[in-house]
Structure to design on (759 residues):
């Protein structure tokens, strides 16, 4: 755990307490059972907004708290631990895109609404099942955007889409020319194919040539924070289980074969936490972001993959049941692993950044 | 691209930085620039060039080789921030820290914690000056991973102990002046029968035999004690406290063995830079073998995550005060990754990377082979990886012993 200042410690403790008491995994079960395509609890999101979580990276002038990325990451990690379903990550990323690339007018129009929770935003970048920002066909002509975006996170609740076209990022409001087709994935959260058919589009003209990658690096790091919370939760749950389950008249935790597997995962988890926190610290310092983001998401992918798989195995048969929570983490893990860069995509990117 | 992770620009302490620069300009012999062997950290033979001696004495007299140790015992008395500045400026000047070895890494920090005032006054200043070589008397033929099974006896003879027994894997024993040693003062209790004793290696009855290793080197020895007299004032702490003190020393050892910064410096160029010299690249300068490129990227990402972990552990231990069981995690991770890197490096070089001696190989290639082989020891000594896993499971994760 990074060394935190007092404000950050308070924020983390508040998020931990809220997630544990108000948004345990049972809350996600309720959301799932409701079958609503937007797949989150509006009341819970309003509570998050009231606690200021929707405005952590938004400047104070636009209604946020400007607490920085490490602070945002702490909250996302805590929510990841209990699989809290919400558009907080998506909205934070949409706000980040506007902070980086928006005009004063765009900022004034959207940031206060996103920061207050009144509006929900999301990124619409990829056009296929694999993350590939180099291959974008969507185009804009005369201020109208056309194209199809695949597997858009939180699409059902989004009031604002930050859409990648061949020549940059655009703001598109829901409504005319925007249609959704639900894609229900294994995590049972909100995903949709979004078709833009001559939708009114307002370009994010600032932020320079690297705007898309800068926004995606924030997506990689913040997603890695959610994954870190999930990995920690699976590890803790599994450890508790091993200390309770009795076979051969012994609790499983006494078996050295299992002890050493947990020690291995513990080491991996330490590396994942360092990589993710390194990404957040890079964002706050503005130094070496692309490389740090690649390391953060690559380690998150590697370690959460292993822990979510081992979590099920070490639980045995009960880990395979819907009644038990551990499987939810496995299903959400794979969705996040594939989002904003698979392991092979990130290794290739790391090598490119390193000039080899 | 270097193997170090991106770090924010260093914090400033201009006056001290200026002092360090002046000191380096005046005292660091330019002929030593960039020196520092891939096997640094092993207490080696004693031959020293004039320039090396001058540099050691310059650093030692300021206590800057042990920058954060208390000034009253010959340390530098620097804050951690100043020590970081010193490190940065030394790295910029291509200078290395000539004060090292087990006295600095393990024994000194432990004695500062557990030693009497007289012991600290006697033993710490020579360590700070780099004027003494310590070796570690821990392992025995039948006490490896089961270290507490050690049988070397220290018999109470009134004003002194009489030592009989055998130690093994005594790193640098043939060059050492003194040995910090775990001995048995009581046969009736496995752990509470152990004491921590300081032994002069030139005492009558001490015999040292080097062991030739697969690397071709003999950095380890067997050490025999036959009726060796050791004064009572050489006992550190209380009789029977040796296991506690000895384990504390191992935490320091593990923190150092895991590598962190020093290992990164020792490793030098990134694997990608090495690969570009030994394998084909395409027109864009990328490694043409895409499978190899992927494996290098995979390794370098994890290596960076490890370096970030070592840095995080340092920051956290600073906040919490002192080393802890996290040292087991660092040791386990750092040694495994170090071995993985060495294996990948010789694979990148092909047969050119397996030269043993003689013509046709660069010095770097030959020392790389020896370092690869020597590196196999890192997951065995200082508590094997399996022992670290036991420590992590039991002490950190609270997993119980078999009932």
């Amino acid at each position: 755990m990074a060394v935190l200042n007092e404000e950050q410690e308070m924020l983390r403790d508040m998020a931990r307490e809220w997630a544990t008491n108000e948004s345990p995994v049972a809350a996600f079960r309720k959301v799932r059972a409701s079958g609503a395509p937007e797949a989150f609890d509006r009341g819970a999101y309003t509570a998050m907004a009231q606690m200021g979580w929707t405005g952590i990276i938004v400047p104070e002038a636009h209604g946020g708290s400007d607490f920085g990325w490490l602070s945002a990451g702490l909250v996302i990690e805590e929510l990841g631990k209990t699989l809290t379903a919400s558009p907080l990550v998506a909205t934070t990323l949409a706000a980040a895109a506007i902070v980086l690339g928006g005009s004063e007018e765009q900022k004034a129009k959207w940031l206060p609404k996103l920061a207050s929770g009144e509006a929900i935003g999301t990124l619409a970048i990829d056009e296929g099942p694999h993350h590939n920002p180099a291959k974008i066909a969507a185009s804009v002509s005369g201020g109208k955007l056309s194209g199809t975006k695949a597997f858009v996170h939180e699409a059902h609740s989004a009031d604002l889409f930050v859409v990648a076209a061949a020549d940059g990022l655009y703001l598109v409001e829901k409504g005319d020319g925007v249609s959704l087709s639900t894609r229900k994935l294994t995590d049972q959260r909100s995903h949709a194919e979004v078709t833009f058919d001559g939708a009114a589009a307002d370009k994010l003209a600032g932020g320079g040539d690297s705007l898309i990658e800068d926004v995606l690096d924030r997506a990689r790091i913040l997603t890695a924070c959610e994954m870190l919370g999930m990995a920690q939760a699976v590890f803790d749950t599994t450890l508790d289980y091993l200390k309770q389950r009795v076979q051969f008249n012994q609790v499983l935790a006494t078996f050295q074969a299992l002890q050493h597997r947990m020690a291995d995962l513990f080491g991996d988890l330490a590396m994942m936490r360092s990589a993710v926190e390194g990404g957040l610290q890079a964002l706050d310092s503005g130094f070496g972001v692309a490389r740090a983001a690649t390391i953060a998401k690559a380690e998150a992918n590697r370690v959460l993959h292993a822990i979510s798989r081992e979590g099920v195995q070490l639980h045995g048969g009960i880990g395979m049941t819907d009644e038990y929570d551990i499987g939810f983490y496995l299903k959400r893990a794979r969705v996040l692993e594939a989002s904003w860069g698979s392991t092979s995509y990130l290794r290739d990117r790391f090598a490119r950044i390193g000039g080899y | 691209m270097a193997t170090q992770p991106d770090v924010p620009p260093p914090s400033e302490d201009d006056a001290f930085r200026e002092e360090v620069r002046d000191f380096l300009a005046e005292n660091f012999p330019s002929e030593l620039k960039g020196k520092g062997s891939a096997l640094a950290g092993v207490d080696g033979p004693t031959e020293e060039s004039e320039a090396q001696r001058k540099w050691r004495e310059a650093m030692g007299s300021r206590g800057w080789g042990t920058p954060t140790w208390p000034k009253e015992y010959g340390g530098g008395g620097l804050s951690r921030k100043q020590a970081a500045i010193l490190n940065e400026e030394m790295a910029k000047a291509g200078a290395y820290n000539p004060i090292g070895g087990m006295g600095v890494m393990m024994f000194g920090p432990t004695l500062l914690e557990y030693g009497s005032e007289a012991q600290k006054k006697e033993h710490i200043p020579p360590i700070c000056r780099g004027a003494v070589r310590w070796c570690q008397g821990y392992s025995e033929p039948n006490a490896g991973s089961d270290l507490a099974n050690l049988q070397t006896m220290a018999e109470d003879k009134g004003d002194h102990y009489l030592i009989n027994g055998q130690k093994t894997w005594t790193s640098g024993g043939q060059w050492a002046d003194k040995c910090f040693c775990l001995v048995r003062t009581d046969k009736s209790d496995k752990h509470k029968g152990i004491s921590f004793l300081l032994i002069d290696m030139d005492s009558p009855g001490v015999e040292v035999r080097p062991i030739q290793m697969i690397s071709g080197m003999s950095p380890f020895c067997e050490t025999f004690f036959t009726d060796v007299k050791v004064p009572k004032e050489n006992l550190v702490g209380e009789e029977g406290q040796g296991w506690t003190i000895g384990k504390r020393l191992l935490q320091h050892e593990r923190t150092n063995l895991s590598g962190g910064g020093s290992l990164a410096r020792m490793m030098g160029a990134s694997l990608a830079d090495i690969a570009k010299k030994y394998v084909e690249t395409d027109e864009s300068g990328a490694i043409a073998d895409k499978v190899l490129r992927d494996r290098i990227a995979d390794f370098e990402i994890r290596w960076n995550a490890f370096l970030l972990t070592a840095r995080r552990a340092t920051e956290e231990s600073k906040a919490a005060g002192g080393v802890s069981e996290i040292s087991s995690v660092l040791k386990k991770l750092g040694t495994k990754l170090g071995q993985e890197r060495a294996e990948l490096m010789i694979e990148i070089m092909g047969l050119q990377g397996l030269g043993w001696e003689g013509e046709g190989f660069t010095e770097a290639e030959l020392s790389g082979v020896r370092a690869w082989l020597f590196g196999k020891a890192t997951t065995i000594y200082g508590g094997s990886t399996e022992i670290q896993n036991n420590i992590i499971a039991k002490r950190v994760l609270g997993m119980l012993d078999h009932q």
